[in-house]
Amino acid sequence: MSLSEIIATDQLQSRPRTRTGNPDIGAMPRPVPQEGVTLREALRARCEEALLRSSAQSAGISIFDTDDLDQLTWVATAGVLAPYEGRRFPRSDSPCGLCFSYRSTQLFQRPHQYFRWMAENRVVIEEALVAPLIGQFGAFYGTIWVMSHDDPGIHFDLDDADTLADLSRGLASIIRLNNNAPDQDKRVR
C-alpha cells in the first residue's frame, strides 16, 4: 500500500455534512482548566468532547517530544484507544507526523495498512482525521485526532474537521504554558 492510497483529505470537500454527535455540546462554553487539574485531565476533557461532537470511536491528543524529534506521545485519549494513553510512537511513521509535514488537517483511510507501528500494535483504523495544534508564531505542538475502527460506515466530513479546529483552539497555549513537559500529571498553571 502506498501513502497516496491512504491519504483521503480531498474527499472531505465532496462528503455531505452530517452534523453528528450532540449539537448542544458545541454551543456550550468550554471551561478553562481550573487550578489543581492535571494537564492530562485538561487534555482528556477535550478528547471526550471530540467523541461527543463526532461519530468517532476514539479521540486523542498527541504532543511532539522536544527532546526526541522523531517521537510523539499520546498524552490524552478517549474511546477504543484509551488504553494507549501515555504511549510513545514514531512521528515519522504516523498520521500525526504527516499532519505536521502538511501543516493542515488530514484525513486517512485504513492507515494501519501503511504505518508499520499500527500493524505491529494491532491498531486497526477505518478512518483517522488529524488536525494540527499550532501555537504562537506558527509553533507546532502536536495534533488532536478522531478515529473510527470497526464501523466502515463512519466517514468523517467537514463538520468533524470544524469540530477538531474548534477543539484545538487554545490547546497549544495550554501545552506551551505547561512547558510541554513529559510529566502530564502535573497540575495546570
Automatic annotation (TrEMBL):
It comes from the Bacteria. Residues 1-32 are annotated as: Disordered. Residues 10-21 have a biased composition (Polar residues). This is GAF domain-containing protein. It comes from Massilia atriviolacea.
